[in-house]
Design a protein that fits this description.
The chain is of the alpha/beta class. The chain has seven helices and 28 strands. The protein has four domains: about 160 residues, Molybdenum Cofactor Biosythetic Enzyme, Chain A; about 50 residues, Molybdopterin biosynthesis moea protein, domain 2, CATH 3.90.105.10; about 90 residues, Molybdopterin biosynthesis moeA protein, domain 3; about 70 residues, MoeA, C-terminal, domain IV (Beta-clip). The chain has a six-stranded mixed sheet, with no helix packed on it. Strands 16-13-17-21-20-18 form a six-stranded mixed sheet, sandwiched between helices. Strands 22-25-24-26-28 form a five-stranded mixed β-barrel.
Length: about 400
C-alpha cells in the first residue's frame, strides 16, 4: 500500500525507504577507452602485462654495473669504457661487462649486465671510448624495473569506478583500448504548471519561464545520466498522465517538477501511484528547502516529485536523484569538494529539520568566510550568486557567526 501522503521523514529515513525498493540492474555497454572519461566501469580490470616490460632509464646518462662505481669521487673517479649507445625505441642488443658502460637516454632500455644509471652530469668524457664517473650509484638507481608500475595480473580498477583522465592514460599504457562501462541511465524531466512557459517565450503577467527542465537536466548529465526533457505540462490530470506514462516507458528515472505539495491542484502523487507498484514511498522530507518531496518506485523504476521552486528542486536533486543515478550505474556518488570557512552571520534553524543554505566565499585577513546568500527558494539567482552550500544538521537549532563550517562547493 502507498504511504500516507505528506508524512514527513528525515532525509536518511526517506533514502532508506527508497533504497529498500530501488534495486536496478546495471546495463553494460562496450565503448572505446578514449571516450570513457567520467563513465563508470562495469567490470574489474586486471593488468594484461608488466609495465614497463623492460628495465628503463629515468635519466640521460650511462648504464653501468653499480659495483663499478663504488668509491668514485671527484678526486678519485671510476674509469669506465663506453661500449655503445642504446637508441631510443630500440632494444639493447649488446651486454655490459665489468668496467663497461653504455650511453642511454631517458626512457631508454637498460642493456643486460647493467643495474643502474649514472647521470650524465656526474661523468666526464676522457676520450672517444672512456668516461670518468665522479659519483657512485646504488643498484637500481635511476632505473624503472620490470613491472615496477604495475605487474601482470594485478588489479587495476574496480567495478563502479568513475574514470578520470589519469585512468584513461593508465589503460592506454596497457593497450586496453575498449572497456565495459555502465550504460548511462535515462532521466526524464517533466515540468508542470499553467503558469510556466518555455524559455524562448516572453512571459505574460502571472507567468514564469521554465527553469527546472533545464537545470535539472543539466544536473542529471553532470551525474552521468542522459536527460530527456518532456517540456511543460499544464495542470490537467489527463495531460499529466499521458506524459508520465510515456516517460516511464522511455526512461529509467522520472522527475516531476512542481505539483508535489498539498493542494487541490497538485495531483503528482496520485499520478505517480498509477504508474506502477509499490508507488509513492515518501511524501514529505524534513529539509529546507524542499519539504514536499516525493520518492517513489514504480515497477522497478525510480520516480521523484520535486517542488517547483528552483532552489528547492536543485537541493533535492543533489540529495536524492544524483545518488539514485549512481545506484543505476553501480557507482558511489561522485566526491564533492568541500572547504572549511567561518560563518559570517548567525543562521537559525528548527530542530528536526536539515537546512541547506547557499553561501559565497570571501577572503578576510587570511581566513575564508562563508557569507550566506539569503533569498526565497523561488529565486534562481540565489544559486547563481552562490559558490557552495552549508548544511545545518537535523538536531541543531542553528549555527553561530564565526564558527567553522564545511562548505560543499558547486
Amino acid at each position: 500500500m502507498p504511504t500516507e501522503l505528506f508524512t514527513v521523514h528525515t532525509p536518511a529515513d526517506a533514502w532508506a525507504r527508497f533504497a529498500e525498493q530501488y534495486r536496478p540492474q546495471v546495463r553494460v555497454e562496450r565503448i572505446a577507452t578514449a571516450d570513457a572519461l567520467g563513465r563508470v566501469l562495469a567490470t574489474q580490470l586486471t593488468s594484461p602485462q608488466n609495465l614497463p616490460e623492460f628495465a628503463r632509464s629515468t635519466v640521460d646518462g650511462y648504464a653501468v654495473a653499480a659495483v663499478d662505481t663504488y668509491g668514485a669521487s671527484p678526486g678519485l673517479p671510476a674509469l669506465l669504457t663506453v661500449v655503445g649507445e642504446v637508441p631510443m625505441g630500440k632494444a639493447a642488443t649488446f651486454p655490459i661487462g665489468p668496467g663497461e658502460a653504455a650511453l642511454v637516454h631517458t626512457g631508454g632500455m637498460i642493456p643486460p649486465g647493467a643495474d643502474a644509471v649514472v647521470m650524465i652530469e656526474h661523468t666526464q668524457r676522457v676520450d672517444e671510448r672512456n668516461i670518468e664517473v665522479f659519483q657512485p650509484v646504488a643498484e637500481g638507481q635511476n632505473v624503472v624495473q620490470i613491472g615496477e608500475d604495475i605487474r601482470l595480473g594485478q588489479p587495476i580498477l574496480k567495478s563502479g569506478h568513475r574514470l578520470r583522465a589519469q585512468d584513461i592514460g593508465g589503460l592506454m599504457a596497457l593497450g586496453i583500448v575498449e572497456i565495459d562501462v555502465a550504460a548511462s541511465p535515462v532521466v526524464g524531466v517533466i515540468s508542470t504548471g499553467d503558469e510556466v512557459v518555455p524559455p524562448e517565450q516572453r512571459p505574460a503577467p502571472g507567468q514564469v519561464r521554465d527553469i527546472n527542465s533545464y537545470s535539472l537536466a543539466a544536473l542529471a548529465q553532470s551525474a552521468g545520466a542522459r536527460a530527456l526533457r518532456y517540456g511543460v505540462v499544464p495542470d490537467d490530470r489527463a495531460a499529466l498522465e499521458a506524459v508520465a506514462r510515456r516517460a516511464i516507458q522511455e526512461c529509467d528515472i522520472v522527475v516531476f517538477s512542481a505539483g508535489s505539495s498539498v493542494s487541490y491542484r497538485d495531483m503528482t502523487a496520485e499520478v505517480i501511484n498509477d504508474l506502477g507498484k509499490p508507488g509513492v514511498l515518501v511524501h514529505g522530507v524534513s529539509v529546507k528547502p524542499g519539504k514536499p518531496t516525493i520518492l517513489a518506485v514504480c515497477d522497478g523504476k525510480a520516480v521523484f516529485g520535486l517542488p517547483g521552486n528552483p532552489v528547492s528542486a536543485m537541493v533535492i536533486f543533489e540529495l536524492f536523484i544524483t545518488p539514485a543515478i549512481c545506484v543505476a550505474m553501480g557507482a558511489a556518488p561522485p566526491p564533492r569538494t568541500t572547504v572549511r570557512a567561518r560563518l559570517a552571520r548567525n543562521l537559525a534553524s528548527d530542530a528536526g529539520r536539515e537546512d541547506y543554505v547557499q553561501v559565497r566565499l570571501e577572503e578576510r585577513e587570511g581566513e575564508l568566510w562563508a557569507v550566506p546568500v539569503l533569498g526565497k527558494s523561488n529565486l534562481i539567482y540565489t544559486l547563481v550568486n552562490a559558490e557552495g552550500v552549508i548544511k545545518i544538521p537535523l538536531d541543531s537549532n542553528g549555527l553561530r557567526a564565526g564558527e567553522w563550517v564545511a562548505v560543499t562547493l558547486g
